[in-house]
Amino acid sequence: MSRTRIHNLAISLDGFATGEPQSLEAPFGHAGHRLHAWMMATRYWSPTGSTGVDDVFAQQFGPGIGAEIMGANKFGPPGWQDDADWKGWWGPNPPFHTPTFVLTHHARPPLEMEGGTTFHFLEASPAEALEVAREAAGGQDVRIGGGPTMARDFLAAGLVDHLHVVQVPIVLGRGVRLWDGLEALEEGYDVEAVSSPTGVTHLTFTRKAAS
Amino acid sequence: MSRTRIHNLAISLDGFATGEPQSLEAPFGHAGHRLHAWMMATRYWSPTGSTGVDDVFAQQFGPGIGAEIMGANKFGPPGWQDDADWKGWWGPNPPFHTPTFVLTHHARPPLEMEGGTTFHFLEASPAEALEVAREAAGGQDVRIGGGPTMARDFLAAGLVDHLHVVQVPIVLGRGVRLWDGLEALEEGYDVEAVSSPTGVTHLTFTRKAAS
């Protein structure tokens, strides 16, 4: 059965998944690279990286995924909708390698990139977008790619089967919070936590089987 | 050297150290006992409890402590100041066993309890209160007993040498947040995280040696 998955969603101790303000120069605002340094130190990211618990979690990102859904705030900096040449942050060969649906109020034609990524621009509710993405995924899983607002919307709508959150031991103080509006989220999931020697803690939420 | 310590401060994934509303019947509001179930399952709490990582952390509460400082919200439910007979939540023999300073705008005479606990009622800033408590501790450490607002005030004032936070895998959604106003707290500390098989994660902040 096709599942809906979120991977490598990094947050600070105080629950911020990005700092502020977000811009072309600073996609994560004042958080800089601090929320993702754990990942950049893994073999998933770099051939000389570590191969321990951080790496095995990071590696889960790709396998079994047939499509991604991302929010407009992940695709580009504020205002990208007014730049007809903007093709995302990731260069000619983005790391998605599947149909990738960008939820935006500004429709534009699909954008075929190298390596199997095609960006589709879609105005839709989470449930509608998931239906379209699942169709495109051809029986494989759908990844909710973020940002945090998008992740929160899908979680609040009860559409997520697997959630992997990486808690980084910093206090950001400001930015976009992940957990807002998700009171009692844990009731629908089996939750595990495992800390890494690098200081981050991996939390996994696995949706409970329907009883 | 006398240190200032915080122990067993439990928070939800979204950073709330207590739920709401707080009352005589529900000291932690809608959080109920969920933030402290990990501790009640340890030998520290009950003779038949567990003796693993949760227990060894819980046990750190007492040794080496010569005085406690707590906030008015920890000593009693809203309005306790108007009840001359209120002597705290803990019965005749409270679990502090040292001089214990309650920060409140409503002064009252000291209250000597069984087992070595004497409650002193004090109107003072965090730094002033710490000076008084350190004197009373006779060279031993001072514990900041909470609640979360008090802990945050002492952390923001740079007065805490050791902080032990226990993160419980629930999303409370509302209550009193621990981390607000503490941006970049980690810069002054060495931070460790260790997850327990029970699902909670213990975070310790050890103040860096002055360089």
TrEMBL record, chains A, B:
InterPro entries: DHFR-like_dom_sf, RibDG_C, Riboflavin_Biosynth_HTPR
Domain Bacterial bifunctional deaminase-reductase C-terminal residue range list: 6-186
Pfam families: RibD_C
GO BP annotation list: riboflavin biosynthetic process
GO MF assignments: 5-amino-6-(5-phosphoribosylamino)uracil reductase activity
Protein name from the UniProt record: Dihydrofolate reductase family protein
Species of the source: Nocardioides luti
